[in-house]
């Protein structure tokens, strides 16, 4: 659970129960990291709709978005998110533990494509020191084939992960995996 009062799938009612049913249908369970948002059904719905849209992003691959979450969380020292996304890369993307470890040590050693590594590098730069991002960084991503919408979506995904790390760490969300 967490130090914030939240609803479990067993105790949820109303809108929270409806959203949990959607999450359970898609993922098989409702992670405690998502349950923390049940304290505000609007935020829970917003978070679920956001995750749903990112899982179906037309250009940002599942491994890329999982790497964004894992590596941004590494900077935020959110063990829950690091391990959850490492597990997703292994169990859902077919990466080996060695590939995940290499990626965690240096994203340039990941099995992502060169274009994905380029965009991932921009996201990490933006989430670690947003003032350091330059027009040349964005131009480099464009030259790698990314649209401005893709660039915005990727950096936004990283920025939202910073916020999620704060909530998960701050409210002491317990692992459920």
Please give a quick description of this structure.
The protein is an all-alpha fold and 177 residues long. The protein has helices at 14-27, 32-35, 41-55, 62-75, 79-91, 97-105, 114-128, 135-143, 148-170. The longest helix is centred in the C-terminal third of the chain and has 23 residues, at 148-170.
Describe the structure.
- This protein is mostly helical and 177 residues long.
- It folds into two domains: 42 residues, no CATH class; 101 residues, AhpD-like, CATH 1.20.1290.10.
- It contains nine helices and no strands.
- Helix 4 runs antiparallel to helix 5, helix 4 runs parallel beside helix 7 and helix 7 runs antiparallel to helix 8.
- The model has no long low-confidence stretch (mean pLDDT 97).
Which band does the percent of strand residues land in?
Answer: under 5%
Q: What's the story with the biggest beta sheet?
A: none
Distance between the termini: 12 Å
CATH architecture descriptor name of the largest domain: Up-down Bundle
**Structural class, judged by helices and strands?**
mainly alpha
CATH superfamily of the largest domain: AhpD-like
Q: Return the CATH topology of the largest domain.
A: AhpD-like
Low-pLDDT segments: none
CA gyration radius, whole angstroms: 16 Å
Shape: globular
Q: Write the element-wise H/E pattern from the N-terminal end onward.
A: HHHHHHHHH
State the share of residues found in helices, binned by percent.
55-70%
Number of helical elements: 9
Taking all residues together, what is the mean pLDDT?
Answer: 97
- CATH class identity of the largest domain: Mainly Alpha
